[in-house]
Target: Glycerol-3-phosphate dehydrogenase [NAD(P)+]
Amino acid sequence: MSFPGKITIFGGGTWATALAKIMLNHEKHINWYMRRPEQIEDFKKTGHNPSYLSNVEFNLDRITFYSDITQAVEDSDTIVLAVPSPFLKSHLEKLNTSLANKFIISAIKGIVPPENLLVTDYLEQYYNVSPQNMAIVGGPCHAEEIALERLTYPTIACADIQKANAIAQVFNNRFVRASVSNDVAGIELAAVLKNVYAIASGICHGLKYGDNFQAVLVSNAISEMERFVDIVSPIERRIQDSAYLGDLLVTCYSSFSRNRTFGAMIGKGYSVKAAQVEMEMIAEGYYGTKCVREINEKYNVDIPVADMVYRILYENSPAHLEVKTLREQILK
Ligand SMILES: NC(=O)c1ccc[n+]([C@@H]2O[C@H](COP(=O)([O-])OP(=O)(O)OC[C@H]3O[C@@H](n4cnc5c(N)ncnc54)[C@H](O)[C@@H]3O)[C@@H](O)[C@H]2O)c1
Ligand SMILES: O=P(O)(O)OC[C@H](O)CO
Model:
């Protein structure tokens, strides 16, 4: 078998659908696991995902669908995880076969609660997957723009850089330019944090702060991200690279951003529950905010913007007062 072998996408959501489109630009055929059999039935009837990115048409001859996760894993060499981090455990709990001899690509931008483990750490500790057999997809990527074939620069990180290069080849096409890195933990952590900062950005937007203020907020957020990532995963990195700063910017500024949209609802006065119900997609930063807070009990990094988001979401602290304190005492 030549690496990466048979590829299976895990997840029926927006990002899974965009990744399937990317993979099918390179692969003749992919497997695709979705949790709900009725979603697969509707997909087969219409030729597109009935629930997400339904404007992307697929050639059904080139896809084998699975709702049985064990069979999907047994029939694959490389698995691309694209389910929201809070649901990863519930998916994998149904698995009756080993992941240890598979290559796993995590396209998840979140942390696994309540263990507060990065996805790669979780897979290593609970499923015996070796770090050499795991890669992650980072960088500024909105699925909606992949659907429109807008030029996108993801980063593929893996401890084994040759494998990262091979995966990048699978991603590369007319509208995707993948680069490679070995900073797996740093890029995963940055992705968790950018979700939290996008919620902060959304909250401020909802409270009617303007672009001048947003620019200062995001400047402070990148400094926080650098402090946190450098302490939790200390290797040399350039925080201004697109896998870190680029991902923060796209999430804080794009109208496609789930986390920013969620934050904007909070800023406008929605309760957390109401905002979650209203959104049809998952804002993982809500979960990431609590995970970052708990991880930081050990490291004690100065992260006032992330702390503010925690108090607003989890302690019911009024957003307008929290942002007022931030703007008067912290931001510069
Ligand atoms: N959407 C993007 O542009 C994008 C880009 C890069 C990375 N990501 C990452 O990809 C991952 C998936 O995000 P998404 O945007 O595709 O999410 P989404 O909100 O579009 O999809 C939700 C997915 O979660 C599943 N789901 C919903 N409730 C569930 C439950 N109770 N149990 C199990 N599964 C449930 C749905 O079936 C669906 O597959 C996330 O980690 C996200 O950070 C997304
Ligand atoms: O911007 P969000 O919150 O939808 O997150 C999507 C991706 O992670 C952006 O790179």
Observations:
- The domain at 5-181 is CATH 3.40.50.720 (Rossmann fold).
- The pocket of SN-glycerol-3-phosphate (ligand 2) is lined by residues 109, 140-142, 195, 198, 247, 250-251, 254, 257-259 (CB under 6 Å).
- The radius of gyration is 19 Å.
- The first helix runs from residue 14 to 26.
